[in-house]
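Pipeline run #58 for the internal structure catalog. This entry was flagged by the ingest filter as a single-chain record with no existing model, so it goes straight to prediction. Upstream metadata was stripped on purpose; only the residue string is passed forward. Reviewer on rotation: M.T. Logging verbosity set to normal.
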Amino acid sequence: MTFAYRDLRYIRVDVDDLDAASGFAAEIFGLQPADRSDRHARFRSDARNYALCYSTAGDGGAVALTVARSEDLDVAAERLGAYGPRRLTGDEAAERQVKAGLAVTAPNGVTVELVWRPLTSGWRYHGPRDAGITGFQAVQLACTDISANETFWTRGIGAEVSDWAGDAVFLRIDAAHHRIALYPSRRDGLLGATWAVEGINNVMQDWYFLQGRQMPIVHGPGRQPTSGAIFVTTRGPGDILYSYAAETEEGPQIAARGPRQFADGALSHCAWGSPCTVREFMGGDAE
């Protein structure tokens, strides 16, 4: 990378019903409601002003990364030239609560927004229920052309490969094992998002809570062999997956050992062999 990213900042998810989506995010998943307008509802999971934005404006699914300096946007624009990046207008930046930004469309149709000086809240995060959430952790993307998307994220965005599981790609932008995961799929778009929780007890408590609310458990509880994360996953608004995860690997040893290749099978996505109804997490076993 020619510059360092500060974090994975937010995702934007298209939904049909803002009230129903908001009810899930707060009452079921445990995110804290933040700013809301007629067409957008935002939710907090840590010190940032929001990590999740639901939209009925038709502005499309998006993933945002934070850059450290305004000059980084110029470097990124040059590097991403073949993908047609554009600067956010003043109104667009204000809507996203950032000082400035760059938008580019990935091969799978998801907008990637590189943002500078996103708004941080002065208030401590406090969810409507104690789900144990400590922060926004990762995003999963569905890709019909996995090779083109890997090239975009590595050569264009500048992320680095931590591991492959079959052709699924786990990409890091900081010390965490991955912030972006790309999965071969029959469709393109946002696949899911993960929030970190304090520990395995929270993962299990959230599993019981989701079951009690009759939410579908589509994967887990389980342990991801690549990152070491203990997780449980449900499906929610925007037809995307929502996961809690604990014990995700972090540290310089990830870069030092280099990318590893895991087999193309369900056990490469869950070492515990937990039930899974998500084709993208079953690798070659789904065929």
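catalog note: The first helix runs from residue 18 to 29.
catalog note: The chain has a mean pLDDT of 96.
status: ready for reviewer M.T.
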